[in-house]
Amino acid sequence: xxxxxxIPCLDVKNGRTVKGINFESLKDAGDPVELGFLYSxxxxxxxxxxxxxxxQEGRSTFTELVKKVAAKISIPxxxxxxVSTVEDVEKLLNAGADKVTVNTAAIENPNLINTLAAHFxxxxxxxxxxxxxxxxxxxxYSHGGRKKTPLNLITWAxxxxxxxxxxxxxxxxxxxxxxxxxxxxxxxxLSDAVTIPVIASGGAGSMKHFKEAFELGTADAxxxxxxxxxxxxxxxxxxxxxxxxxxxxxx
Length: 251
Description:
Layout: E1 5-13, E2 16-21, E3 24-30, H1 32-42, E4 47-51, H2 56-72, E5 77-80, H3 86-94, E6 99-102, H4 104-108, H5 111-120, E7 125-134, E8 137-142, E9 147-152, H6 153-162, E10 167-172, H7 184-193, E11 198-201, H8 207-215, E12 221-224, H9 226-229, H10 235-244
């Protein structure tokens, strides 16, 4: 069995790491480069950096940040936020990122996934899916969770896999920042529906929640932010806990 991955996520706005609840009420969580270095030293398997303001003015600034991160850490990291063209991906990969995540642009132009996968290889392309459970189904949202789309989580996930995505980063908007646990039932359905790796995001509040994401949700990786940023869970202790519960994780 492949080892499960633990991935700290750093949402970046105006050069700082921020974290909110249900995609709102952002708090400063520190310097993204220094935090990334700290997590790499503590045993993180990968990192995700998201430019959550993603304005055109900020794109060059974010690329510079990616270069600084690449110079400081030795573990793989994924970057995203406002990525919409081959050129965007090229700049971020050239700056040192290992993978790039796309979300809104893929929803608006699904062929973008095919194009990016053909150009850079599926292993570089992560499709992020933000979804909210409402009226008995998981509706997909775009534009940083601000705009509801007609898409359904499972249907869209299957399509992005067919189009060449190498991984899916699924964030439950209902669970984001609540620390009440991951959306394990949706994770299980999603993992059963696709063959590519699924990263769980939204809701981590305890070590048990990670265990549930892997055991009940059968996720390949679990991503969290505030529990790491504000020192509620140590990466080292989390891996010891998971091993004790017979979940394979990397050293």
